[in-house]
Design a protein that fits this description.
Oligomer: homodimer
Number of domains of chain A: 2
Distance between the termini of chain A: 16 Å
CATH class of the largest domain in chain A: Alpha Beta
Order of helices and strands of chain A: EEEHEHEHEEEEEHHEEHEEHEHHEHEE
Helix content of chain A: 10-25%
CATH architecture of the largest domain in chain A: 4-Layer Sandwich
Number of strands of chain A: 18
CATH superfamily of the largest domain in chain A: Ribonuclease Z/Hydroxyacylglutathione hydrolase-like
Strand order of the largest sheet of chain A: 6-5-4-3-2-1-18
Chain lengths: 308, 308
């Protein structure tokens, strides 16, 4: 079961040096989630040959244009291609009026249901949940209301221990009960707790997306032990004052968050256009947190299945 | 004095086959006009290394996304780069509220003045005029209100005829008066009309931009004798019924308009994504109007100076 993150764009503010504004696809099991949708995201989806009709849920962190100006184009393209399945958009409350206004003036009757779910910027909340995945939004601190997103695989059910059950001649109903986590009674006198006949399954994986934000240590408990953290690092630490003034973070600060949260791997992105060469940002982050990569367009980072 | 048209995008509806939605730059003397601004136009301006700070006037034909979704991104980029000179946008009245709403939610205080001028879709009107150029908007017939634009070089003043004046020993004031089109009096008895001492200058050039529209012969008198006509040809004529249903034109119809209007050259564009190979569209247009080109991204069409 996959848990992959593909970078579609990771430049801040505007396109430069052939880098596009923020967007990424998160593949978790059968889901394809789109996170942020800067201008040109639909071109990037085409370029990397992503099956973009599989996107049903789109998460927008905030309403600076480099994070959502591509959304209306993507939604319009779905309309032109006669999409029928629902799209749900999670984002700041004003996003709905912007999109509805643009659909209205173009006299577009959508062929698919479009639902908006407003994110909260004053508290952490579960905004999406099904049998496989839970998505949590959490406030970060930017010039305008902004949230991060935490994508969490649900805890897998325990696996039946083949060795433990091999002589018990279980019925299919008993097998099913075990897999559901129930205890089972073999006869009047023989009883097994679920734990006796099952083994722990793989631990669930988590991915945290944090952009755009000031250096914000209060997010550490929320993203703690994440298998993967994407954290904005718009500037080098020599521009820490500029980062603070614009409500952004530096590569050093992103790495410090990763270290404090004890995440397994860090991807840094949302690079200022002033940096054509990104290697100084990478080196700065790696000095504090070694397991760091640059968010390069097209790159896929697969979170491996974890061992118990 | 240049009069060039550079194609930045000419696909209809959405990006496909590496073709971008509608946008083009018109270079007339010192002016750089942007006409339509589909998603990704700012990337195309970068790609073709256009000095996009020289754009002061932007013309939007209508509010289907493939003609304006790139506008907010371009305006935001100007803001990020601390532009100070004014931008004027000519387009449908609702455009202003869409742009202002997006600027408001991002808490953007523009560093430059931004003015909107509403286009009329019930009559032909002069929407821009200075010493060099006049721009006329004219209604076309699409699913929502839409205008074409006619870019006209102003009539050049007549040139002083060096042979006619060589023995007259004109003062610099008299020379200047002649160039302004005035008649002059050399003495009490000697008088010359302006026409006697000047020659006709180069004839002014015109470019007509017609997208998106049904086949609309009523535009012929407006665009008559244009040096260059860009006319949408979304479909081949075998899809004439589909063109009519979607308020678009076919390559044959674009060529028929060019022929009836006796323009000098035709560029066809706004191609449906169903055509990967555009040569059948070109051949169809050329069967009716030979001097036809395809609107290929990056292509510059220079309107040569006309002979008298």
């Amino acid at each position: 079961m996959s848990f992959d993150v593909q970078i579609l764009g990771s430049n801040s503010a505007m396109a430069a040096h052939n880098r596009h504004p923020s967007s990424q696809c998160i593949f978790i099991h059968h889901h394809v989630f789109l996170v942020d949708c800067g201008e040109g995201t639909q071109f990037q989806l085409q370029k990397y040959k992503l099956k973009f009709f599989r996107i049903d849920n789109i998460f927008i962190s905030h309403l600076h244009g480099d994070h959502y100006f591509g959304l209306i184009g993507l939604l319009t393209t779905y309309q032109l291609l006669r999409r029928e399945t629902k799209i749900t958009i999670f984002g700041p409350p004003q996003l709905e009026s912007i999109i509805r206004l643009q659909l209205e003036v173009s006299d577009s009757k959508l062929t698919y249901p479009l639902e908006f779910v407003s994110t909260q910027t004053d508290e952490t909340s579960i905004i999406f949940e099904d049998d496989d995945v839970e998505v949590v939004s959490f406030p970060v601190k930017h010039r305008i209301p902004c949230t991060g997103f935490l994508f969490k695989e649900k805890v897998f059910p325990r696996k039946v221990n083949a060795d433990a059950v091999k002589d018990l001649k279980l019925s299919s109903e008993q097998y099913y009960a075990l897999r559901k986590g129930e205890d089972i009674r073999i006869s009047k006198d023989i009883y097994f707790s679920n734990q006796q006949l099952t083994l722990p399954n793989l631990p669930p994986r988590t991915y945290a997306y944090c952009t755009d934000t000031l250096f914000l240590p209060s997010i550490v408990p929320i993203i703690q032990y994440a298998d993967l953290l994407y954290h904005e690092s718009t500037f080098l630490n020599e521009s820490a004052a500029r980062a603070k003034e614009t409500f952004h973070s530096t590569a050093y600060q992103a790495a410090q968050i990763a270290k404090d949260a004890e995440v397994k791997h860090l991807i840094i992105g949302h690079f200022s256009s002033k940096y054509q060469d990104l290697s100084p940002l990478l080196r700065e982050a790696q000095d504090t947190f070694e397991d760091t990569s640059l968010a390069i367009e097209g790159m896929i980072y697969s979170i491996p299945k974890q061992k118990n």
